Amino acid sequence: MTGQHSHMPASMLVRLAWRNLWRHRRRTVITLSSIAIGFGLAVVSIGIGDGSHNSMVRNAIRLGEGYLAVQPPGYQAAPANHKFLADGLSLRHKLVALHIAGTIEPRISLQVLASSATNSVGAGLEGMDPVSDPRVAMLKPKLVAGHWLTPGDHRGVLIGEGMARRLKVRVGGKVVLMAGTRGGDSQAQLGRVRGIFDSHVDELDDFLVLSDIDFARSFLVGEGADAAKQPVTRYSVFLDDPGSMGHWKGVIRNALAGEPVAVLDWQEMMPQLVQFIVIDDAGNYVFLSLIMIMVVFGILNTVLMSVLERTREFGLLRALGLSRRHLLALVLCESLLLSLLAVVIGWIVGGGAHWWIAIHGIDFSAMMGGNTSIAGTFMDPVIYTELSRARVVELTVAVFAVTLASGIYPALKAARVTPVAALRT
Amino acid sequence: MALLRLEGIGKRYRQGEVEVQALQDVDLTVAEGEFAALVGPSGSGKTTLLNIIGGLDAPSQGHVHLNNTELTALDEAALSDFRLFQLGFIFQAYNLVPVLSALENVELIMVLQGRPVAERRERAGYYLELVGLKGMMHRRPAALSGGQQQRVAVARALAAGPRLVLADEPTANLDSENAAALLDIMHRLSHEEKTTFIFSTHDPRVMDRAERIITLHDGSIAGDQRHQTHDLPA
User: Choosing a second label site near A235 at 20 to 30 A (CA), which of A274, A341, B132, B211?
Assistant: First the structure.
């Protein structure tokens, strides 16, 4: 043994790799462009996917039961009119005492039969605060006739355009809402239609009846509840920061540990929406995989061509004393630089497009044909891209991992070069 | 004192279905500071012998002792390090790394040797000046003529401080003027630096400059004679 070993400083490795990358400027530019455009497309596509999912989730949460719901145990599996929180007032005090960063809305959900003079349909009566409930912001703009509920309106109801058509009622018309009681009797309340909304979500337009919470509460009183205790079906919690949902869920569960209540998050409340997003995400991942395959072949092609062209040069370097390890590192470094450039350019292209769409949005209403209903909620027709920090990291790491992996074969090929065979070429 | 000792070197390899005996029972000793030429017709085994001496190829039989190290006993990584620190190579063509300037090419081996920046800069500059390329240090190989590229290769081989320089047909691609200039430089540096040179050639101009001519024929040493050198015209 000589006792002396070769030494390749990182600066020399990077310098050689960088210059090698630009030997065939046009080839490198074409490869970089294809990777960057593919990567940019993936960024935009996933941004649109996440944007539409988040829009659906936000709408579902505002239309539905909030980020967190406090409701009777077993209600989720088998909803029934007689399942309610009898002492809503004390429960509300306990929730308010937690100083949750967000709002707490009382809700009463009942299954009723809505009848007019000409027809009857099954309906879901939702009693709410007609001012503060997030449904106001969602559905008030969708009113196509009449006006919104006013606080203290003990007769007024809002119905969807589909139900109005089936009941053949108009604004000002009467609708009788009838509900069965636990004992087998029935009770009814007369409602007067104050307004008709058209949300473009069939499940809402055909089924939903909105009223002031006190109107709906009269059915609970009929079930034996004490109106003074402000019974409710649930309290819906709307958080200022959706990311804090896990934290607040734990806090509320601990605070209400002794109470006969269930604390559920929106994913537990709307499993069908979660499933839809998972399936849609799977589609996005397939698209991302196709992009990755394109990236792999782009890098493999460029680096492998460049390795095959330089067989003699690698032989020379090996003859001069460069070790196999150094050649391996050199070619891997070339792949790494190529992927770094591709990711940077990809982020400039894709990030730029994402930034623009995140501000201006893309209007898909023509494609959706007026129906934006998906999985029981609706998607805003103008979609804004959204990318979370986790997504940015995920995309960047995926491209890096894939590009590095695609450089392994050419690097091994370069490292296998024997000086004599290579110099003979 | 013997720098290089070859004992019973043989080399066989397969070429398709045929087994070729490239070298047979080659015994050779080369002393420190010699300027020796390996001559012989094409296919006589000159390049194969140079490759074996340089540790680029392994003999089928026999032993190579170079500077008190038996090369045939070294593994690949150790051979690579041995080449880096003990040997200099000058090939017939495509000698330089195209993406590095003349200066960087000369520095490359010293970088791999782990020499400090200041030392390698100084040595690279010195040897490039010695081979007459002071003003062209920052040019890349593509901007140099064939003769100039070979001079850079000579500077690179010597700047790293090798005990032995192996040159395979170093003048084969050069015109007379460039060949003469290159030989002159190599000869001068051999004497000034006390570096041992062994080169393969069939170029009579090179043979004229060699102090020892070893003739190979059909893979065996057919002649080994000391030679009175003739100075080339300036």
Answer: A274
**pLDDT tens digit string along A382-392?**
888 888 888 88
- Tell whether A4 is covered by a domain: no
Residues in chain A whose Cβ is within 8 Å of chain B: 1-2, 4-9, 12, 16, 19-20, 23, 312-313, 316-324, 326, 419-420, 423
| Within a domain: A226 | yes
Amino acid sitting at position A136: V
Would you say A167 and A119 are in contact if contact means Cβ atoms under 8 Å apart? yes
Q: Which residues pair with A382 in a beta bridge?
A: A363
Interface ipTM above 0.90:
no
Selecting from B81, B98, B99 the residue whose C-beta is nearest the C-beta of A321 gives: B81
Which residues 49-68 of B have a C-beta within 8 angstroms of A?
A: 51, 54, 56-57
Q: Which residue has the higher pLDDT, A417 or A376?
A: A417
Helix (H, G, I), strand (E, B) or coil at A131: coil
**H/E element, A10:** helix A10-21
Domain co-membership, A316 together with A285: yes
- Contacting B residues, span 125-184, partner chain A, CB-CB under 8 Å: none
End position of a domain, from candidates A227, A243, A268? A268
Domain assignment present for residue A3? The answer is no
Task: Decide if A111 contacts A81 (C-beta within 8 A).
Answer: yes
Spatial CB neighbours of A292, under 8 Å, sequence gap ≥ 6:
A398, A399, A402
Q: What is the CATH number of the domain that holds B109?
A: 3.40.50.300
Residues from chain A contacting residue B111 (CB–CB below 8 Å): 7-9, 12
Distances (CA, A) of A342 to A28, A332, A339, A398: 10, 15, 5, 13
Q: Which among A273, A268, A237, A236 is positioned nearest to A378, based on CA atoms? A: A273
Instruction: Report which of A323, A317, A314, A316 is spatially closest to residue A2, judged by C-alpha positions.
Output: A323
Pairing type for strands A262-265 and A68-71 reads antiparallel
A422, HSE (Cβ side, Cα atoms, 13 Å): 25
Residue A221 belongs to what H/E stretch?
helix A213-222
Tell me the C-alpha to C-alpha distance, in Å, between residue A279 and each of A53, A272, A273, A275, A286.
Answer: 11, 11, 10, 6, 11
Q: Is the pLDDT of residue A258 over 90?
A: no
Tell whether the model's pLDDT for residue A260 goes beyond 60.
yes
Residue matched to tokens 């007019």: A116
What are A83-101's pLDDT values in tens digits? 999 999 999 999 999 999 9
| pLDDT at res. A415 | 87
Quickly count: other Cβ atoms within 10 Å of residue A391's Cβ: 15
State the nearest Cα–Cα gap between A26 and chain B, in angstroms. Answer: 16
Per-residue confidence (pLDDT) for residue A2, from 0 to 100: 47
Separation in Å, CA A245 to CA A249, A376, B10, B55: 6, 22, 79, 68
Residue B32's alpha-carbon distances to A208, B175, B196, B214, in angstroms, are 101, 30, 6, 16
CB contact under 8 A, B57 and A322: no
- What is the residue type of B223? G
